[in-house]
Design brief:
Length: about 325
């Protein structure tokens, strides 16, 4: 990976690998071998979360990769996320320590607040990961909101940096208004914003704001609908892979649609975290550093924007968890 875009700088001077492996929905039995395969292909960035329920398996994969001697711990960038039920300052450190334990690590490269969603605390011994329902066995289970100021959660996140548990802290699923507010009181400024971002949801203003504020942006779901069709959160006809415009660009460069989407993401200055369970797709997804898109083709993809958000708690909260919980409105 000789391309200068193979990593992007973050505010503390670190280098953020621009293609990572997202681990959402990857089964436990796959990860212990998939992660070493990814490392052997050049991956150094792995995106995890408590809520994915597979951090112990990710940890086995990381341990296997380190044992193989291909990389050292210092070569890797491991991200995890604070879940919605742990926002109260009393629970933030314990949640981080649980992720560290599951991942077999002493320190995270990045710890993010997963959603601006504050749900009632569920003890580890009662259910872990706790998920979205407060009581899944209730007659009509739902999410249980509690009031926890985001500033209080952020203060506890800052203490994780002070304590050496994490190198950097950041946020997910925020817009410019909440970012401005956070920046006004943050002692340690957010290093990274992770949001849904793909050719059908380009979020140009949000990206520009973050770049001007020295906040790195991670694009999750860089292929758009593909992760959401099986969950009934997207229609099959919304697939980016069937889009004639991007297919035409892919043919022009002799690349796949997925490679074009990832190159666009990296070339516009974001980090992308595609998910896959196959070695062939792992290899395809990281082979994007041997070409560049023209300004015209970058603009064509920018103009594919439909403001189509697939991961929206206002929709899936009500459909799946019987709770209307808008955060983007």
């Amino acid at each position: 990976m000789s391309d200068s875009l193979s990593s992007l700088p973050v505010s503390d001077g670190g280098q953020f690998p621009s293609i990572g492996l997202g681990t959402w929905k990857i089964p436990d039995d796959v990860l212990p071998t998939l992660i070493p395969e990814a490392v052997s292909l050049g991956y150094r960035h792995f995106d995890c979360a408590c809520d994915y329920g597979n951090e112990p398996a990710v940890g086995k994969g990381i341990a296997n990769a380190l044992e193989a001697g291909t990389v050292s711990r210092e070569d890797l960038w491991i991200t995890s996320k604070l879940w919605n039920t742990y926002h109260h300052p009393d629970h933030v450190r314990a949640a981080c320590e649980r992720s560290l334990q599951d991942l077999g690590l002493d320190e995270l490269d990045l710890y993010l607040i997963h959603f601006p969603v504050t749900l009632a605390y569920v003890p580890f011994e009662e259910r872990y990961p706790p998920g979205w329902f407060f009581d899944p066995e209730a007659e009509n289970p739902s999410m249980k909101h509690v009031d926890v100021p985001y500033a209080d959660t952020w203060g506890a996140m800052e203490e994780l940096v002070d304590g050496g548990l994490v190198k950097r802290i950041g946020v997910c699923n925020l817009g410019t208004a909440m970012l401005r507010d956070l920046k006004s009181y943050a002692r340690i400024q957010p290093s990274v914003l992770q949001v849904e971002m793909h050719p059908y949801l380009t979020q140009q203003n949000l990206l520009r704001f973050c770049q001007e504020q020295d906040i790195a942006v991670t694009a999750f779901s860089p292929f758009g609908a593909s992760s959401y069709v099986p969950l009934s959160m997207a229609d099959a006809n919304e697939s980016l892979f069937d889009d004639a415009d991007i297919q035409s660009i892919a043919a022009k460069y002799g690349k796949t649609v997925g490679q074009i989407a990832l190159r666009w993401a990296v070339q516009r200055g974001t980090v992308a975290i595609p998910k896959t369970q196959t070695v062939s797709h792992l290899q395809e997804n990281i082979e994007i550093y041997d070409f560049g898109l023209s300004e015209e083709d970058m603009l064509t993809i920018d103009q594919m924007n439909r403001d189509r958000r697939f991961n929206d708690p206002a929709e899936f909260g009500e459909a799946a968890f019987n709770t209307f919980y808008p955060i983007f409105d």
